[in-house]
Amino acid sequence: MMTIAVLGAGKIGESLLSGLLQAGYAPSQLMFTERYTQRASELEHQYGVDHTDVVSAARHADVLIIAVKPQDIEPLLDELCPYVAPSKLVVSLCAGLPTAMFEQRLAAGTPVVRVMPNTPMLVGEAMSVVSGGTCAQETHLDLAEELLGCVGSVVRVPESQQDVVTALSGSGPAYFFYLIESMIDAGVLLGLPRAVAGRLIVQTAVGSAAMLREGEGHPTIMREGVSSPGGTTVAGIRELEKHGVRAALIDAVEAAHDRSVELGRVHEDGEPGE
């Protein structure tokens, strides 16, 4: 029976544990590490999954899912590396960290799969993107996709595209939250109670996303379907174009991509990141 260890039980790690249990994995197949004793006890009580230490996880689990912040990776690897055999699969959810960094530290031949998830994992709607390292076989990528599929959608891309993924879907929720926040503020400015404005915009966002997911059409065609000639929507879109909102969003994604590349280079050079 395959055993899975989630190393780092923060929000993402906990969400993955919860998703795996809901997908039918038994608590006895799962374990997790967590540095804070009180939180570890709370998670054990809530999910019935055993809390363990890094060394025990490395020795006993078949799959090691690393869900710590990138800046915490070095001390974790110091503990982990002497006990990871090439028979185990290492899945990294650490933004910006290349598989080569893990392969240099782990035993030769250890398969590593890099994953860029995003925070909608907290509600089972993640967009996770997986890439295999040099030793990862098709079966390893299939297994990673199966595990991440418990908490949302999964796409596979070459690792060379992961920095773009990080900028687009990894950081993407923040861009949407920023836009929604701004639209709610506009509603308040024009006289709506904040709670009402929030409900209007959040449901509008949910409905619009559902239309896109159901394949109702290209975003441009769907936008044109809302934009009657000489109407209110056209007037609003004109202002967005006048203020360069499209260009600003493209620049934001490009800046996030460049930062992801920078963080990856820092870790490849063996220096602490952030």
From TrEMBL:
One of its GO terms (biological process) is L-proline biosynthetic process. Residues 3-96 form the Pyrroline-5-carboxylate reductase catalytic N-terminal domain. GO terms for molecular function: pyrroline-5-carboxylate reductase activity. It is found in: Cytoplasm. NADP(+) binds at residues 67-70. It catalyses: L-proline + NADP(+) = (S)-1-pyrroline-5-carboxylate + NADPH + 2 H(+); L-proline + NAD(+) = (S)-1-pyrroline-5-carboxylate + NADH + 2 H(+). Residues 159-263 form the Pyrroline-5-carboxylate reductase dimerisation domain. Coiled coil: none annotated. InterPro entries: 6-PGluconate_DH-like_C_sf (IPR008927), NAD(P)-bd_dom_sf (IPR036291), P5C_Rdtase_cat_N (IPR028939), P5CR_dimer (IPR029036), Pyrroline-COOH_reductase (IPR000304). This is Pyrroline-5-carboxylate reductase.
